[in-house]
Structure formats: C-alpha cells, structure tokens
Amino acid sequence: MKTSFKISSALLTGFVAAAVAAPAAQAQNAPVVNAPVSTNMVLAPQAQAMAAPRAPASDDCGLFKTCSSTKIGLGKGDFIVRLSALGVIPEDRDSKLWLNGSAIPGHVKTTNQVMPELTFEYFFTDNISIDLIAASTRHEVAAKGTPLGNIDVGSAWALPPTITLAWHFRPHKRFNPYVGVGATLAWFHNVSPAGGLVQKLNVGVTGGPSVNVGFDYQLVGNWFFNMDAKQMFLRMHAWANDRGSGAFIKAHDSLDPTVVGAGIEYRF
C-alpha cells in the first residue's frame, strides 16, 4: 500500500508539470502577426484644433494703412499724383517802361497769389524722375513811379506748365530729398485791362529755365507728403493801348517767380 501511494504521487506531480509547460510552449511557438493599426481615431476637440491646417494671414491693409507688402519710399516705375497748395511770388527783378516809344522811369509790380496745383510724376530709375506741374494763377499788374503816377495796368491769368527732371538722393527711404532742373513755358489768358488810361492790354507768351529743391516723406501706405520750391526765370512782355493812341505803353518785366508748394501725393 505504501508503494502504490508513492507511485500515485509521482504521477500526479508529472501531470501538473505537463499542464503548466504546455501553454508556455504554445505561446513561444505561436506565429507573430503584424496587424495594421487604424488611423481613423476620433481626436479630442483640442487635438483637432491643433492638427487642423491654418489659413494664411490676410494682408488686406486698406487704403490708409501700411502692411507687409507696402513698398517703403519711392523708386523705379512709381507713378505719383500730387495735389498741393501753391504760392507764386513774382520777383519783378528788372523792369523797363516806354511811353509812345520813349523810355520813362518806373517799374512793374505784380501781385502774389495762392492757388491749387496738380502734379504728375514718373520714376524712370530709382534716382531719376520727371514731373509736370499744372496750375493757373491770377495776378494784378501795375506800373509804379512813372511820370503819370502809379498806373493800374490790369490783370491776367498765368498758365506756366513746367517740366522738371529731378535727382532723388535716398530711393526706397521714407525721407527722400531731391534737386531738379527744368523748363517753363508760360502764357497768359483772360487778360483784362484796368480801364481809365489802359483801355487795351496784351501779354506775350514767354518761357525760361527753372530749378527746384524739395523732399518726399512717406506718411502711411502709399501716401506721401511733399514740399517743393522752384525758381523760374521768366521775362514778361506787355503792351497797353494801341500805337498812335497817345498813351501807348510797353513794358518788359523779369517776373522770375519763386514758386513754393506743399501737398499730399499718392503712389500708383
């Protein structure tokens, strides 16, 4: 009886060891399978916001704003339109008067005037531009200190279109000073005699060189402030009344107006 118990215990121990070893062996000998992992997972709202592509920032800066695409300063290819307040100051440097063909003492005096001015400017290069100014100003003309006293001659509108080539020292900078040279052709319209001693009045077309100096300053976006001073060299020729009338007056006057303007301009 003792012997059979020992055998039975040994058999039981063997069965237990075999039962434990079998699953481990199956796990070691099982084939490895690489199953695909699904990417269609639902993300949390915060994760979705971080993963979503961002739209590019808008660069719509408006008409009166400076944005990243705005060019700084002026340069090649820029076209400018400027509206200025213009002051015209005739210098009347040298006057000569004749009465019925004889020289008489006295001098011509022309009044100052302020009017709006329109300017168009184009940049051929970063440094060189050409501009055309258009303005018309009305002036009163008188003969002072003559043997006949002070004579009111009349009034006339002057239209002096001026073309200028300018050199700009600091292209593509907010502050850009310049100097220029050009030419002026002036003619006079709506000429009105003063009456009394002067019953008829004619003023001839004239022209001459001009020089100028000024600067542009970029305010915001494509808007600029401009300050400009021109010196024109013009000589006016005028005739009052008819020959043989008894009071035929002829005058030559070096107008040589100084023209100062300040205004706002826009770049296209």
TrEMBL record:
This is Outer membrane protein OmpW. The keyword Membrane does not apply. Belongs to the OmpW/AlkL family. Residues 1-27 form the signal peptide. Gene3D superfamilies: 2.40.160.20. Keywords: Signal. It comes from Asaia krungthepensis NRIC 0535. PANTHER family: OUTER MEMBRANE PROTEIN W (PTHR36920:SF1), PTHR36920. InterPro entries: OMP/PagP_B-barrel (IPR011250), OMPW (IPR005618). It comes from the Bacteria.
